[in-house]
Specification:
The radius of gyration is 17 Å and the shape is globular. Helix content is 27%, strand content 27%. It has a 6-stranded mixed β-sheet. A 6-stranded mixed β-sheet has the order 7-8-9-10-13-14, with helices on one face. The protein has a 3-stranded mixed β-sheet with strand order 2-11-12, with no helix packed on it. The protein is α/β, with parallel strands linked by helices. Helix 1 packs parallel to helix 3.
């Protein structure tokens, strides 16, 4: 399976619609890939909190329509990163969209863990409450977004739902880049899955972004890693390695689920 992670740069001087069209063009260029991934909140910038409400969209708004067309044109599975979604009641969510090669919506995931510690995203956006997986022809993908990466219980729930590959779009800051790499590898090792983690380049609201999108295999080895600037990271992975790894080293069978249930 060939995956392309589009580590797009977010420049506050670039109009949102211009970046939307540029991202769509980059997706269409990946027609030789099976799966294409964009980062978190690439339309606004993950730290541009004051822009969330201004640029929030209904689920089937302009980003949805543009990305559905790009997926259809390229003939790829597209994880279109996330966007600030506004629901019918006016609540904002950090929502990821996954499209099939026919351009149909295959899954939507509202970010469960909101970053900000009682400010920023944590107070401006509602929280999702449901782990989401989506079945691709070669693997079952579990969806997570940025700050979710710090919460292993979400990834266990995704594994229990059949996930063999985690796709994690992010707007991760440069100052915590070491955590980005460490946590991506940890989630891969403990769950014996592939991790495809796609970050942004550029600077969001004065916060330099880490870039360094990364692909990790089920043993925690880094298959490929981008640098800091805008880049498309393309890698071939064998999803069958997940089953082989779990058979050779069957650590998941020794879990004690009762330890993780409320008393």
């Amino acid at each position: 399976m060939r995956a392309s992670l589009i580590q797009i740069a977010v420049d506050e001087d670039e109009p949102v619609e211009a970046r939307r069209q540029r991202a769509a063009a980059l997706v269409r260029e990946q027609s030789g890939s099976d799966l294409v991934v964009l980062p978190e909140l690439w339309t606004t910038g993950a730290f541009a909190f004051e822009r969330f409400a201004e640029h929030a969209e209904p689920l089937k708004g302009p980003t949805y329509e543009t990305m559905a067309d790009a997926a259809r044109t390229a003939g790829v599975w597209l994880h279109a990163g996330s966007l600030p979604e506004r629901d019918e009641q006016g609540t904002l969510y950090n929502t990821s969209l996954v499209f099939s090669p026919s351009g149909d919506l295959a899954a939507a995931y509202r970010k469960i863990h909101r970053f900000g510690f009682d400010k920023g995203e944590a107070v401006l956006m509602g929280a999702g409450d449901t782990p989401v997986t989506v079945a691709l022809p070669d693997t079952t993908v579990g969806l997570a977004t940025c700050y979710d990466l710090r919460f292993p219980e979400l990834f266990r729930a995704l594994v229990d739902a059949g996930a063999e590959t985690f796709v994690v779009p992010a707007g991760w800051p440069e100052r915590r880049r070491a955590h980005w790499t460490l946590l991506a590898r940890a989630r891969a090792v403990e769950n014996q899955t592939f991790v495809l983690a796609c970050g942004t380049a550029g600077t969001h609201a004065g916060v330099p972004q880490a870039g360094h999108s990364i692909v990790v295999d089920p043993w925690g080895e880094v298959v490929a890693e981008a640098a800091a600037d805008e880049e498309i990271l393309t890698v071939d992975i064998d999803p069958g390695r997940v089953a082989v790894t779990r058979e050779q080293f069957p650590v998941l069978k020794d879990r004690v689920p009762s330890l993780h249930r409320p008393a």
